[in-house]
## 1
Amino acid sequence: MTSPSIQHFRPKLAKEMKYVFVSGGVCSSLGKGVTTSSVGALLRAKGYRVTAIKIDPYINIDAGLMSPYEHGEVFVLDDGGEADLDLGNYERMMNLSLTRDNNITTGKIYSAVINKERRGDYLGRTVQVVPHITAEIIRWVDSVAQTATDGTDLSPHVTVVELGGTVGDIESAAFLEAIRQFKFNLPPHSMCFVHCTYIPIMSGQKTKPTQHTVKALQSVGIQPDILVARCEEEVNDSTKSKISNQCNIHREKVISAHNVPNLFHFIQMLEDQKMFKILNDVLKLNELSPFGEDDPTSSVPKPALVPCLKTLGDWNEYANTVDVARNAAPVKIAFVGKYNKGGEDAYVSVVKSLEHSAVEVGRKLEVVWINSTDLQPAETPEEGDESLYENAIKSMKECHGIFVPGGFGDRGIEGKVKAAQLAREWKKPYFGVCLGMQVAIIDYARNVLGLSDATSEEFDTSKESENHVIKYMPEIPKEQMGANMRLGARWVELERPDSKVFKLYGGAKKITERHRHRYEFNIDYYDRYESAGMIFTGKDESKERMDVIEIPDHPFYLAVQYHPEFKSRPGAPSPPFLGFVHAAANPTSVGDRLDSCLKEGPSVLYTQL
């Protein structure tokens, strides 16, 4: 019998919600995020309203201060939340606009419980992992699950929840216990548990790792309903039968997640293995009203958010389009970054945006990674340093376009400034994001305006420069770093109809994009830049903050203070990324692309906040 204490702290739950929990075992990087996103996309394709939650067991409050080398990029949400990169995958694949509450961390849960204890909410009781921490996890998941994130005002039908980490990690224990409790607080057919596992090939397909990870789950009271088995080749019937026998699961509920030409084929792979039928059997989804039916209670017109890939036919067509593009002529983009050693995860949304755009223009994306430190030879170069510089210059010159992403700190900054300078001088397509805009401004000040000591206040800690063309934003306090920036969706006014950015956004006079920065252009220098040929074609509503720069007499030289990569979607690439990649791939027809974007008109993804 449940004790009165535990029952008291179990929050009331919404009974009509369906949940799909996704966990992983054996090792990391099995594709939990891909599975979660693809299951969500499949449910969306079938007509159900979906939202997503990522649980990260680390103690950090959020991902904002985590190293890109260790954790990958920080994904910024409309509400300013700094989240795990998997939320970017959810937004792209499910066409959602999530909030900071859709990313749960151990730090957030414990902080909430401790704050309640300090207020006296627990009435003097001893606060423990069970029931108080687990109850807070349940309350948080249930609360977020009721919030629409698809642009409608209708509650979701299904919430897909990914549990980060690997089953067996001590950090995940409280979350697994909360999930176990959660299931028995819900009506039957309300929860489906999907577990991702690994099938190595060593003289055949081996099932022992899968057997052990399922037993680890069973030991904490959770029996998976579906196993997604990652393997280089298709999991054969005999392997599925062995897993079924040893793991207490029907053979048809063992899903093979084998290699595909591109990940967009995975949704159809799930459908071919009857994933939706299995989900329907477990959750009784057929008893819910599909999204396509009219709901008189909704005040938001359908379709929501932005025209996107919705049906399985749409996804299959796009997957095939990606295959065709990858066999086309390459478009080579020089990627001048600071965190290249962190792998693609450090810039995952940027790379996805470049890929979306390359597919749109029918070209194979080839990213040429260039460390920004290689572009700044030392004053007394060590052996090999000069060759690194020369090789970096040579590699950039061979590329069709030069891209400079965001970043923090002064390491490699002079290399980024050099990249902006060479793109300008070589008349090679250039696109800069956040810091990529700031280094373009610094280059222009030094090499066009004649301000040789121009720099950013961020890099001039000794206060030697008299020309801080980039300054610290005055309203940002310097005492705290976490969540202490200009964050989230902000309006940007595009006031010049003849500008490239105005046309790329379909003629929208006002757009919303996501920001993440502490430094901005020093408006005291505005007139000098404008008169010298660098123009500011996007500003905030006060006209005091510059968000977009262009050089009109350059074939394509564009930089933005915001982060457009966070809103790019498969089949609906970010406008400035699309313009840049088109300019790199087809430099003689940039005007045609701009006219085409202008004719299509603005997307609601950028005109609604």
## 2
Amino acid sequence: MQTTVLLFGFLLAALAPQGRASDVNLVVGVRQSAAGVRALLDRLAAISDPTHADYGRHMDRDAIAALVRSTDDDIASVERWLRGSIGAADVWLRRSGDALVASFDSAAPSLVPLVPPELKSIVDFLLLQSPRKETPMPDERPVRRPQRRAAAGTDGTPAAQRASYGLPDGLVGTNETNLQMVWGPGTYGFAPSDLQLFYKTYGIDPNNIDMVQFDTANHGTNGGDNFGEGTLDVTWISALAVNVSTLVSNTNTSSATEEGDGFGAALLDFATQLNERPRVPYVLSMSLGSLSAHSCITMCQLVTQDDPKLFSDCWAYTQTQRQVCMFMSDAQQARIEIEFAKLGARGVTLLGASGDGGSHWSFMPFDSLSEWGRKLNKVGCAYNWPTYPASSQYVLAVGGTSWDGTSPQAPVGWSGSGSGFSWVVPQPSWQQATVSAYLSAAKTLPNFPAPSSFNASGRAYPDVSALASSMPMCLDGQCQDAAGTSGSTPEWAAVISLLNDARLNNGLPPLGFVNPRIYQVASQFPGVAFKDITVGNTKTSCPDGFPAIAGWDAQTGWGQPIWDGLVQHFTKN
């Protein structure tokens, strides 16, 4: 099924969750309990703090639902509206306790209904589920990033990366309960024949293909940008974490989710659906994202401040740029943050690509031949514009390194490695001392960004990094080199899965929300579990950017994985 969605004033499409059979359903996200959300976040902080007595004591689905459940009054108000004004034949509450689903016997709405004024503070989002229709992908937009189509080299092969990170030869997953996932909408997917070719070319056990499964009916569409993303994700998470069960999830095939502002709702829809499942993966790798909603909204406000009526024109221009502005509002991202917190409390490690445009872009500057592009490029270089979901405080943000011109033993920061400071998400306590030390050490270096150009008290990212250049992949029956944090993210996800495998075999819970522990270990034992990167800068085509320096930095985080140190500090409690 496909759904038409009204989310904070926009229409898009999203996949219907599994539930009662109905030609048309309407899903209503209801305001969550504020006190319950605070209790959830407090509980997550305890679960993820290695010094706390409750460390690793993750919550189950129903316990979380009991905390954040919408109030009876709010639920009743929405239900009355659905039955009385919308004509629902049946209404039921989801297991999460914060969304209602309405079904219809006849005369179902063909468009998303308008929320009455008295319910606007209660209703977070609407999803109108209707029989699925495939939407052709437009082909007139520019590619999202530079594509490297050269023949595959030997720099970043699985064997070379395993050697660089210190992964032992023959290390594979052995715990049958271990589970990892990659996700994306639109054309996201992969061809098993391409994965088999990669395994054959680079010496991966061909039987590993049996460990990779789709968990939805959507298997992607070859030729779409997200199909390449899916191929890269599946390739690297499965090639480094061999014999670990891998789920490939595409919960939405609408073109609006491939490259425009429908993506944010697709991500929210996916996160809420995942929280409905009785079992969740231990690792979720997300390579897709864009500039945050706040970044895009503020950029358009700045370039239209002399004539605010032109804001909609600026926004419309951003929607012609592939995967640059894919979130609708801060409110949308705030609800996603809560869904991410739920997953973290359940023991899921969420990883997100930091982006490929340094600290100024999603991937690259706007088209300089366009008037809007020139205006946005000017403000793009004037400020730090963070990406999302990398700037989420519940996501392990993964930056990129490069071996080009150096060696696997002496990596440098990849020039496109996304980075920066959120304008909206506050800086978590577990990274405040680290970030303060970085700013003190780096602020006097040449070309460091002006204090007014970024939010020094916001969530800083990335947290870690891995190889993001000269990585082979096989697509359309040919192997080639690829580049981007879309590769480094599933690489780190695989490392987390292998650590989880050791923990599960020792009777320990998965790492779950691992960020606080990473910052604690890296601060106390520098150079033991993370390879420090000290060369690089995030400025890309702009005059200033964040430099890589000793210790954590806002280009490569704590650096690349060092397996022996990670085993020492992350496979025991």
## 3
Amino acid sequence: VSGKPTTATQTLFHSFRNNRLKMSGTSSPRTPLKRQKSDSIIIAKKQKFTLHPTNNFVNPLLNDLYQITMAYSYWSQGRHNLNSVFDLFFRTPPFKGEFCVFAGLDEVIRHVSNFKFEPDHIEYLQEALPSCNPEFFKWLATVDRSKLKVYAITEGTIVFPRLPLIRIEGPIAVAQLLETTLLTLVNYPSLVATNAVRHRMVVGESKSLFEFGLRRAQGPDGGVSASRYSYMGTFNGTSNVLAGHLFGIPIKGTHAHAYVTSFIDEQDLKVREFKAADGKTVNFWDVVKKARQDTGFSATNEGELVAFTAYSISFPSGFTALVDTYDTLKSGVRNFLTVALALHRCGYKAVGIRLDSGDLSYLSVQARKLFKQFSQDFQQPYFEKFNIVASNDINEKTLGSLKEQGHEIDTFGIGTNLVTCQAQPALGCVYKLVEIEGHPRIKLSQDVAKVTLPARKNIYRLFGAEFPLLDIMTLEDEPAPVPGEKILCLHPFDQKKRAYVTPTRVEPLLKLFWNEGEVSEGLPPLDEIRSFVWNQIKEMRPDHVRSLNPTPYKISVTNGLYNLLHNLWLKEVPIPDIQ
């Protein structure tokens, strides 16, 4: 993919689709794409061929103008090739918690691999910046990723404020041009993955969570990203068919109220026969009417029963009914049970119901009671275990409330509050220069939270007997902590907060993923990252990741980094002359 903008007649679907084709080496845009079991492509170690972003919008022009103008000024001053180091990190954890799930690294590596200004990009910039020296644009056309190094924490890792999630090393003009794109590739994915795993922590591993938010997402890009990163954040699947196609995410869905209300009576049931599980053709409507007599559920909405019958004829092995169109308990659930009994007599098993309105706790409990009674009446144990799905504007707080009330819901479909991150719509990662030509740099502020930590740094997670104790940042040339050996850990800004720590295990967090033209660390498929996320959550001390009043996780520095930070701080702050 060249990065050229799509024409007005090309849809975003074709943009995604053609991108996948070229990633897979398929030449014809009409050739069907093969469904993947997880991510669209697994990035392997030592891979030298060009990778391509999932979205064609991701190219060097997906940038803020001032990145281009700074690059021009660096070039004009002859400073564009100075070796620089930038850190990408966040200052405040999202959702009033203490942690974040790092996501988006796969797309970062794809962008870096594919980073090059195309001729049409250069032409546009010449028009947009007519006062710039034409030689600058000739230089810009030669810019690529061949002198860049990308260090990063593994995607899916539970991370904390101030930790460099990504460290970029390379010529300052090129590294500067990456800032905006890298931030947009990390901010939203990390926010959605964190939002998703927080929902998972409320319901536990026994419940299923599905993302249903495409129609409420911030455009097609937001919708596809939300599906991908909520799945990474331990959701079980999505309703988004394109996301399933691109990333191999399980797709799920039932039907809408419009489907139910489109049927009025049995005259609307044009196809009444289907093949039973034994291969014989039966008039299923006759089987349903007999089941209705046997259940005694005669005072229900007939159009709804006909709709359920029609849908189960289409999907006899996966029938889930939306039961709140007219009256959930007096009609919807009873019509579902009637059709479920008819399907059973034809050798099929219905799946369950979906609740989309009303008191979800009460309705789910009452529905389960009906299932249990139905199971006893017809001597079929699996009837009482029919799946109950709820999908009524659910968020993390709602899940907690349902848990307190008690409910019988097995599966939650979560849309608006998940994909829009209504509780906090932005993460706020930043990208700061920390070293230039070997000289540590610092950004100061009256707000201590905005003071940056200078120099190249390594990060280590120190473990105790059961859980991680803290993360410590060291200067790059300092020795790594050693299990069983005491190390002094200091708060970066409060000298009174310090402790000696003797770790039982030490885990280095930063790895070199991109090394001057090639992938140097493999990136795992989506399913593997998803499992890694949940294992990370289970590895953390529970009070650090709980939703309400979590205990702050300690981020510390070595004595060497502490001294460098404060000496540089004193050096860079002007001394006032008071008279």
## 4
Amino acid sequence: MGKEKLQEASPEESAMGVEDSKDVDSTSKDASPDKSNKKLLCFGKCLAAGLVLAAILALVLIYGFDVGSDSSTERNSSEFGKDNPTTPSLPSPLPTETPVESPSETAPSVPTSNPSASLPTKEPTRAPTKAPTRTPTKAPTESPTKAPTASPTKSPTKQGTVTYVPGKLTVSSNGLLLSEGLQARVIAQSGERVVLGGGGNGRKLVSSEKFHKEPDGAAAYEWLDSNGGWIYVTNSEVQSSGKGGVGAIYFDKDGNPVDYRRLVSGTTANCSGGKTPWHSWVTCEETDGGRIYQVDPHGVREPQLMTMGKEGGSFESFAYDIRDEAVPRFFATEDNKKGALRRFTPDHADWDDPWNILHSSGTQDYLVLQPNSNKKKGTYIWSNDLDEAKENARLYYRGSEGLDVRDNELFFVSKEQKDLFILNLDDMTYEVHSTKFGLFDGQPDQVKRLIKDPSDKENNLLYFCEDGGERNGVHARDVNGWYFTILEASTSELTDNSGLAFSPNGKHMYVAYQHEGTVFDVWREDGLPFYGKTLSVNYHEVGQS
């Protein structure tokens, strides 16, 4: 019975089976034992076949083998070996875990193609998966995370919040002791290239020329070729013959240096000087036989020797009075024990080309003081006798340096006597004020007046540099004769303060320490200009008339 299920007989075999049965029947009586043996053998074969079939079914149930899946397995194995020639074929032993039946996709742990040795299996996208924001969440790394030593190291306070207290020295910065509410940074150092744009993290732009040695007198101008920038012009007082000169640092509208270049070379001991009404710079040589030159801060016109001072002298500072444009007056001090203060009046003033006014013919005369009994007040004259003026300078104003003119008053200082002279240019009178007060223990040097509104008497301040002294710095005097200190050196390494100037917007004070060759940028942390309001003023002592 089991044999019939395994194999169906053909018609020929069936016919033969009929004939065989007849023969068997005819002989059954004679051969019964053989017939029984045949039946037993047939039963054994069927039983064996059934056991084999049962075993196969058991394997299918236990291991999940699908009958007829051999061809699929062979195809997959062939494809794997084709794509991965170096990868060995799957092992023949049965897995320890039950595999997934007939996977429709290749298992993720088995690569479908050869992996690359160096490239990722998937090409990375060049564009970000998220659209970038237009505004960066952090400042770019090329810009400094701290304000240079181009931008303030401390963010300004809210506009209108006044924090500046002149004379209250509480802030220490870069070797300076500053009034409360001020900050400072170094913008130039002799012998080094000027860092431009404030520098940056990992990126440093510098000037093509190195900053000059012995920086001295200076002034600031609007930079006409820029969008709100300015120029800081500064002398070089190197004493070696022909080694002095004039340089200039150019700033953008935010106060960051963007260039430095030399404007004058080949001169000697360029000490101080001053601005002209048409915004050129006058530089004075402080040496035997020194001369005075006019300089273009923009570098367009060549430096030119002036008429005043052609006779030679140890010249210091320059100022002007142009209240009467038909008769303009120009002044210069001479830093010498017999250095007479000079006045030049051109024969003709051509205001269509004012540059040439200082190079035209004219008259030069000299200051002669006529003091009263206490020598604190008096009258004066302008003399054309140079020898008389020299002797008068020896007696009453030795070593005149800083010079300034505002309205009808001329200010100059005698550094040896530590006196400030104020000349009334209209009534020919003068008065003397001592600068020997408080922290002002050095010699008064250059003078700058900082005022925006002439009617604002409260903020009408006269600033002094200080030559020498233990802690020389910048001081100021108000209209009432009170003195106070804006800043001073907190280390003995900073000496001979000079180069005082204010940016055109009044928000930056520039000052140099000559022998160290360091130039500082000082600003109010409240963001206000120096002529703006202050909280209070810490005075030293009232000046004596």
